[in-house]
Amino acid sequence: MFHLVATLIGLYVIIRFVPPLPVGTVWKWLIAAFIFLIAQYHLLNRIFSGSMASPEMPVPVLILAGWLFGGLLLLMFLLLVRDIAILAMLAMHKAGLTGTTLRSGYRTVLVMALVVLSLSAFGVWQAIRIPDIRRVDITLKRLPAALDGIRLVQITDLHASRLFSESWTRAVVDKTNAIRPDIIVMTGDLVDGTPASRAADVAPLADIRARLGVFAVSGNHEYYSGHDQWRQTFARLGLNFLENAHVQLTDQGQCLILAGLSDPVAIRFSLPTPDPDKTLREVLPDVPVILLAHQPSGAAAHAQQGVDLQLSGHTHGGQIWPGDLVVGALYALRYQCPINGQHTDGGFTLAVTRGYGAWGFQLRTTGRAELLCIDL
Questions:
Q1: Angstrom distance (rounded) from CA 167 to CA 163
Q2: Bridge pairing between strands 214-217 and 309-312
Q3: Whole-prediction pTM
Q4: CA 317: distance to chain centroid?
Q5: Which among 289, 312, 318, 348 would be 20 to 30 A from 119, CA to CA?
Q6: What is the C-alpha R_g of the chain?
Q7: Residue 363, CA distances (Å) to 69, 127, 222, 328 in order
Q8: For residue 322, is the peptide bond before it cis, meaning its omega torsion is within 30 degrees of 0?
């Protein structure tokens, strides 16, 4: 389905972008063929490298492909906006509401191409740079006074791959350790690819340190890449997985519950699906509960089950414009939750971070990547 949509996007851009260009017929056919080839980027990944999510290509090729495919997507959106405006003006003209219509020539499409390639280049730079730390304070009503100021770092959506390799992960570890967190939590999608191809890229996670421990849950991409094998690999790196389970942390004589859920995609692999009832069973009353869930979609139900704070990722903050607007609207309507930032309702807070890496498109034109540091 994805490849069909990409093909339709390519054809639309060809039909609406190429004809006005001030070049000969041969050049127009060559440009059309080039655009169609860009549209097939992910299909070519699957054919030649066996994976759409984790192509084994040289990094410069991945960066170039991300720039061109990102430009194609952005050009499609601009062309669509232009065409809608042309149709609207035409309808108003026919209705007698305006005496003019909107026209678009080759200069317009050339300016569009320049704009989208510049914006896509910025987006690629945003995706591959080492992200900044975002610091937030979150108040938990049930947090004991002795635990005031306890610090968590949330790492999510690393998407370790050929592009986000060992050096990238090492930067994550160094930045995290420099914060001196009390607790480190990882909320899934740490990898793209199998342990055989990606184990070296996540190996620096063995050096990550937190006073009260390092805990994690799987995201959907761990299931796509061999869930059980990754669990074993991460266990050797010292990550404590909390999937449909919880642990009681004690500090300064006070308790804090840290719980974790499996990912909903587990059902496709006949593995345990998220089970909040099992996860929160036998949790001590009046003890604050922090829940790790890769996807924020179940937050409303978790709030009713006594969770104080849910930490999620998955959305990448929308990652590219105007995808962030579409994804944000879908999550608000279907799940009643945001795709970025903190949302507090009564005694419950949902914190969704934009994550550290990128997937699918090697660019971020919105939803800037981040390492989230939380002081409770």
A1: 10
A2: unpaired
A3: 0.89
A4: 6
A5: 312
A6: 23
A7: 9, 5, 21, 18
A8: yes
